Amino acid sequence: MAIWLTADSKIIVQGMTGGEGTKHTRRMLASGAKVVGGVNARKAGTVHEGLPVFGTVAEAISSTGADVSVVFVPPAFTKDAVKEAIDAEIPLCVVITEGVPVHDTTEFWAYAVAKGNKTRIIGPNCPGIASPGASNAGIIPADITTPGRIGLVSKSGTLTYQLMYELRDIGFSTAVGIGGDPVIGTTHIDALQAFQDDPGTDAIVMIGEIGGDAEERAAAYIEQHVTKPVVAYVAGFTAPEGKTMGHAGAIVSGSAGTAQAKKEALEKVGVRVGKTPSETARLMREVMQSR
């Protein structure tokens, strides 16, 4: 089992004909993902990487039955690309693009809500989603782990890869990189709920980082709704106050948003929190060995 992305998922790539879109389309195809086409209004009717290019998302869905879009569009055009995917009612839209203005993200997120939340948005500024052995939508390396029964939700792309690699012998049902911007589509809580409901997931790794209160809200949700074991890591224990670290959302103001505060909130509800990514992997290994 997996959440949101399965072996049957049919993927289109908005911006497939660009440099990044081309590179990662090749990688997704090589991983076995069912990429069925691309979207670029200026190149509609052509073939790229052996796949048809359509003028709009709606045309691509009509011709291919696509149910996932991966967005590799420059930041200035991302808002319009995502709104087009929402208008076409594609079930899953994975926005890889980094540097999308927060105002634009807020606008397309609100647009999705106003349209009835028929399109789940993951990202922006994220590595995407991978269900090992089944499908891969985004830039997560396909060969660093194996299929298994751990669910992973993470703000950080590189830490996603590290945990997937360190636990490769146990394997993952799905790994979801939600991105580290101040405003994102899918949240920790959304993924926690999906993993809780997924019979193919036995335990959950949650990776957070300094800034905002997403991890504290996730802790409150875990206390009320999650019965599966959760292990967490919070990046940024040594980050200086008031300095943005890596992600646009990773900024600490006073005592709000610190790694220590997040760690304490999670531990208070029974989540084991590692001091390093490797310790977090060790804690998850103990959880899985005891099941």
UniProtKB/TrEMBL annotation:
Keywords: Ligase, Nucleotide-binding, Tricarboxylic acid cycle. The keyword Nucleotide-binding applies. It is an enzyme of class 6 (ligase). It comes from the Bacteria. Pathway: Carbohydrate metabolism; tricarboxylic acid cycle; succinate from succinyl-CoA (ligase route): step 1/1. Its EC number is 6.2.1.5. One of its GO terms (biological process) is tricarboxylic acid cycle. The active site is at H247. CoA binds at T17, G18, G19, E20, K43, I96, T97, E98. It catalyses: GTP + succinate + CoA = succinyl-CoA + GDP + phosphate; succinate + ATP + CoA = succinyl-CoA + ADP + phosphate. GO terms for molecular function: nucleotide binding; succinate-CoA ligase (ADP-forming) activity; succinate-CoA ligase (GDP-forming) activity. It holds the Pfam family CoA_binding. GO terms for cellular component: cytosol; succinate-CoA ligase complex (ADP-forming). Substrate binds at Y161. Heterotetramer of two alpha and two beta subunits. This is Succinate--CoA ligase [ADP-forming] subunit alpha. The gene is sucD.
